[in-house]
């Protein structure tokens, strides 16, 4: 071996060592499947297009897709109080990182409203990241006789069952909040559920329902004087609507923002989870997505993977207890 060859051997060994270290550092999914992602990712939004969650998640998908090099395709799959889409992902999606869904509190609650639960919110999903929540509130049409929340409650107390309100579905967070309010005030309102907040607002504007109690799809109509907000459900008054009282101010020990995130089917590789978490976190923190959240007054509720999984497990037990306390059932 000449001097030139002897000098090359240590260099070759160093390259082999570095190559081996890099291989060890790569996520298992990269070794098993090659580069992830190598095709489009589907993100199921369980509401009709145009609502606040749909717009926010489309923004996340667009930003994440550009960063990751593959499109994130939004598929709207509404129904069953916002649980049809997540349930389809849990039951039919492959745990390869190419089928994801919005995870929200109704998915944690609805199984316990059934005689025989059809899914386990903790065990049947791989929870990836917590993102944001909603601005909830109640609004009536501008020509409604109700100028204030107390006027509405007084009418409901004097006319049991006559006043109608709409939400985005049975067993949703906003429906549950309204059940809690009725229980506290001893009033009876008639619930008219729709598949999404857009449809709910349209029904109120058309005079088919008296009041919408849902996420902030109603906000632009309040701003242009087509609707009137009677309450918001945040901890403090909303800057866009400084004259609208919170539920706490109205005498209820109730703050509702319903934080949500993104999950996939159970059994996902943790390397893929890390990739998805990181790219969606970056998207969440961009000025573009911040502007979308600000437009709908959606609070930032970022949770990393481990924190979000702990939140899901704890909140599932809370929702189960709440359903039993209010005796809510989908079985009639």
TrEMBL record:
CDD domains: PBP2_Bug_TTT (cd07012). It comes from the Bacteria. Residues 1-30 form the signal peptide. The keyword Signal applies. The keyword Secreted does not apply. Keywords: Signal. Belongs to the UPF0065 (bug) family. This is Tripartite tricarboxylate transporter substrate binding protein. It comes from Neoroseomonas lacus. The lineage of its organism: Bacteria, Pseudomonadati, Pseudomonadota, Alphaproteobacteria, Acetobacterales.
